[in-house]
Design goal:
This protein is α/β, with parallel strands linked by helices and about 280 residues long. The chain folds into two domains: about 210 residues, Spore Coat Polysaccharide Biosynthesis Protein SpsA, Chain A, CATH 3.90.550.10; about 60 residues, no CATH class. It has ten helices and eight strands. An eight-stranded mixed sheet has the order 3-2-1-4-7-6-8-5, with helices on both faces. The longest helix is centred in the last third of the chain and has 21 residues. It is globular, with a radius of gyration of 18 Å.
């Protein structure tokens, strides 16, 4: 039986998925890995890639009706045969020892979730907005949790950092807490998932030595459009989920509005975010 099942949702990105799996083949514990790829909707090039590639590690492939990433992850968890599942994106390229680092963390800290570190892939052009997203925490908030390296994050904030581009947890826990399948808009599903893990007493450990490189270029226009979508989905989540704490209220909402009037990177993103919130 493998020690870790790597669950990868994918959607029409066969060329990038191929590179993702090649990085898994190069893992220090490759003999203890199974890969579970779940295609969110049919894609012939991805199907051909899986069928024609002679991977050095076991790769299971499933297709589901076009839904969303949470549904794909749930399918992957159901098919996993190892005690630990590692969620990654199809554009997350793991360092060779990343899976081993996750397993070591779980051996030392049973029944917890483990967050690995993710940064932009140096092999792609890193645009100014990508640099800002990484440093400002709008894409990933790793600068905010540096002081918790190799430690558990405070329970009060851990749900904000359950980034499923690079997150592992015991398979039994993942099966007890599947991703919601009734919300199809992009964004916030990680936070909602993290809220339920926290409520059930599952702590989040930060393991910065497990490193993934995010192979995904973003332009400013794409980032602003994404922020508008996040604003829309935030309000939808708030309508359906009690105690969802990401909606800015009071002084925070006023501060957002003030900063949205400024022609800065932060201001433009807040403006797009607020626009999405108002368009629901």
């Amino acid at each position: 039986m493998p020690s870790i099942s790597v669950v990868i949702p994918t959607h029409k990105r066969g060329d990038i998925l191929k590179q993702c799996i090649e990085h898994l083949e190069a893992q220090t514990i490759a003999d203890d890995i199974e890969v579970i790829v779940v295609s969110d909707g049919h894609d012939e090039p991805t199907t051909e890639l899986i069928e024609k590639s002679g991977w050095k590690i076991p790769v299971k492939f499933f297709e589901i009706k076009k839904s969303q990433q949470g549904v794909a992850r749930n399918k992957g968890v159901r098919e996993a045969t190892s005690p630990i599942v590692l969620f990654i994106g199809d554009d997350a390229f793991l360092n060779p020892d990343a899976c081993e680092r996750h397993l070591i963390a779980h051996n030392l800290n049973p029944d917890c979730a483990v967050l690995g570190f993710t940064t932009w892939d140096p092999g792609i052009e890193i645009t100014p907005v990508m640099q800002w997203l990484e440093k400002g925490g709008w894409q990933f908030g790793y600068p905010m949790i540096e002081k918790y390296a190799h430690q558990f994050l405070p329970e009060s904030v851990q749900h904000q950092f359950t980034y499923t581009i690079h997150l592992s947890l015991p398979t039994k826990i993942a099966r007890l807490h599947p991703f919601r399948e009734d919300i199809t808009l992009y964004g916030w599903e990680d936070v909602e998932f993290g809220m339920r893990l926290r409520k059930s007493g599952v702590r989040l450990l930060y393991e910065p030595d497990a490193i993934a490189h995010h192979h995904h270029s973003i332009t400013l226009d794409e980032s602003l459009k994404r922020m508008e979508t996040l604003g829309i989905s935030l309000m939808k989540f708030a309508e359906n989920i009690p105690n969802f704490d990401r909606v800015p209220h009071g002084f925070k909402r006023i501060a957002y509005s003030v900063m949205a009037a400024m022609p800065t990177m932060a201001g433009r993103h807040r403006k797009a975010f607020l626009k999405g919130m108002k368009n629901v």
